[in-house]
Design brief:
heterodimer, A: about 280 residues, B: about 70 residues, mainly alpha, about 0% strand, elongated
């Protein structure tokens, strides 16, 4: 991988990680469509992914720095006291409940799933499935809200802190679906948040907070890979910085977008991108 | 959440078991559900430390509180 390819992949990863369009799916599909020779499943690609993940996680930590200070403080306070009294303490425990299923499934299944479904055809197929999932989440949300009055809709959970622990654990476990290239982690968690009764902007905030420990953890446990011989750390670092900047910008955009925006356009994009990719792969092998 | 000393004790025991499993993965003794069949598995060890911490936190939550 040369410098320009590394920078392109960094920009792609950072920009698409938080959008509900699957960064992994794009990272598998685009190099194939551009006829680049490297593959995500290649072991030499791991150090690169480590740094990109750390770049994205850093962007999320910077974006929510004040909240993370409150969440970490709330975690220790609630853990020692054995009782939750504030929103920050409850949010800390909700994030723990959501992160554990994802971490367990990630450690035991991630590498196997990724190696099983690493081909561009499968990524394109899962991207189409991701599109239908996004449309499905919106359909279910609309159907639930159709019969409710405005007051009833407003009385639904306004903040992520209000969802149940069962819902948080389920949304967290659904993150494991994102090991399939083409299925979006943020899409699944935002959709899960919507089904749990959150508004779009709150669902996006919960999704980004939930993603931070998972992305950071996935990056940190692989840090030793960076110190293997032959790893072009400088090039990879440049790509990670670009990924971080792109992730920060995309998170800011999405939080603004979801004040009134919906998942449907991303669902339509995923279906179209998946179909176009399949056609390109089929007719231009 | 059910508050009782029995539940708290059970969660505490589960936490200790998780810590032991974490140590076994870190030392390379345990090779269950790993991608390689030899050497230490720090990723698995960290996961079980996190599970142990979560168990101890849950145990503290389950402990009956005096008013």
């Amino acid at each position: 991988m040369n410098l320009w390819q590394a920078l392109f992949m960094g920009l792609l990863q950072g920009a698409s990680e938080l959008f509900p369009v699957s960064s992994l799916g794009h990272a598998v599909l685009l190099p194939s469509l551009l006829r680049w020779s490297f593959r995500q499943s290649d072991p030499s690609f791991v150090p690169f992914l480590v740094l990109l993940h750390l770049g994205t996680a850093t962007a999320l930590l910077v974006l929510y720095r004040a909240q993370w200070v409150a969440i970490i403080g709330g975690f220790f306070t609630a853990a020692v006291r054995g009782r939750m009294t504030t929103d920050s303490e409850r949010l800390a425990m909700l994030l723990l409940a959501g992160t554990i299923p994802a971490a367990v499934l990630g450690v035991f299944l991630e590498s196997r799933i990724k190696s099983l479904f690493a081909s561009p055809y499968e990524a394109a197929g899962f991207l189409i499935l991701n599109g239908f999932l996004m449309l499905g989440f919106e359909f279910l949300r609309r159907r639930r809200e159709r019969g409710a009055s405005r007051e009833e809709q407003e009385s639904h959970f306004a903040l992520a802190e209000g969802i149940s622990f069962r819902a948080a654990a389920l949304v967290g476990a659904c993150q494991a679906l994102a090991f399939l290239p083409g299925i979006s982690r943020s899409g699944i968690t935002i959709g899960g948040g919507l089904l749990a009764g959150l508004r779009h902007q709150e669902a996006a905030r919960f999704s980004f907070l939930l993603a931070t420990p998972v992305i950071l953890g996935a990056g940190l446990v692989e840090v030793p890979e960076l110190f293997k011989q032959g790893v072009p750390v400088a090039e990879y670092l440049a790509a990670a910085v670009l990924a971080g900047i792109a992730a920060y910008a995309s998170a800011r955009f999405l939080l603004r977008y979801f004040r009134s925006g919906r998942l449907d356009p991303y669902g339509a994009y995923c279906i179209a991108a998946g179909l176009v990719s399949m056609a390109l792969l089929h007719f231009n092998p | 959440m059910t508050r009782s000393n029995t539940v708290a004790a059970a969660l505490g025991v589960i936490g200790v078991v998780f810590l032991i499993v974490a140590a076994l993965y870190a030392l390379g003794v345990l090779q269950i559900a790993t991608s390689t069949t030899s050497g230490p598995h720090y990723k698995h060890a960290i996961l079980f430390v996190v599970l142990a911490v979560a168990s101890f936190v849950a145990a503290n939550f389950a402990r009956p509180k005096t008013a």
